[in-house]
Amino acid sequence: MTLMTGSTSSHRPSRTDLAAVVVFAAFALLPAAAAAMGDTFIVFFTIRVMVFAIAAVSLSLILGQGAMVSFGHAAYLGLGAYAVGILAEHGIWDVTVSLPVVLLTCGLFAAITGAISLKTRGVYFIMITLAFGQMAYYTATSLSAYGGDDGLTMWGRTEVFGFAPLGDRTTFYYVVLACLLGVYLLARMIVASRFGRVLKGAKQSEMRLRAVGIDPYPYRLAAYVIAGMMAGLAGALLANAAEFVSPAYMSWHRSGELIVMVVLGGLGSLLGAIVGAASFLVLEELLSHITEHWRLLFGPFLILVVLFGRGGITGLLGKGGRND
């Protein structure tokens, strides 16, 4: 009888699972609610929220799980966007070409820069990722053939086998939602796997891992590459959402904002990264209507959350996102 009870309870959904269902259900129902209210801006704004949520989840995978504080993570956001924009500039619109190019470009850049960056620790890792991120930023600003500082305008969205279903805002919304769900589930699988346990072990004590014969370096590098490719996907979606590509996508300011999103939602929580991205962008939108110096109001709020809300917003809400 005890065994049966234990078996049943082990299959019960956790609070994190229930919270994730609520969050994704809210995203799924939002277009219908927006249509009922006659407000199309909400749909466009939520697309932006979900795109940055993908980028935040990718950063949470290496920051929250592996303690890799990358201050150049926005570089992958920009690389993904520029890959789509440059291909479109040359008349290549199909997703069967653009998506592999995005993933390959971001994966290759992450593998090269990560192989170097992960040889360092602490503030040195932060500074070297910042340096690589700024290198990508200044390279983008020097691409005069693709707009330089002014950015690159896309005259449409990515096509699928010659068709343009993403031109419809609602269809595009659900494509972005599907990508967010896919990235979240993949990240959860990684965290729950042996691979994820090695990342967490390296975060707690790298010396103990080495003592049992496990070298954490290849695991860290693989996680870094996966996170870069996820952020590249977010960049590709961002380029399609705005139909515009800008070097500002990969600036260090944007990398800092991604870190704030992860910390605000709850460090170590993948669902918290989604909540943090949504909270950050909603607060930015609301506070910017009050004053152009909205960061002066947002700063104290973030400090209060960090000081009194262990686990960020998800911790305050009692969702306990540390195990997702």
UniProtKB/TrEMBL annotation:
TM region positions: 45-63, 75-93, 99-116, 123-140, 172-196, 217-238, 258-283, 295-318
GO terms assigned for molecular function: branched-chain amino acid transmembrane transporter activity
Locations listed in the record: Cell membrane
Keyword Glycosyltransferase: no
GO cellular component: plasma membrane
PANTHER family (UniProt xref): ABC TRANSPORTER ATP-BINDING PROTEIN, HIGH-AFFINITY BRANCHED-CHAIN AMINO ACID TRANSPORT SYSTEM PERMEASE
Protein's recorded name: Branched-chain amino acid ABC transporter permease
Organism: Stappia taiwanensis
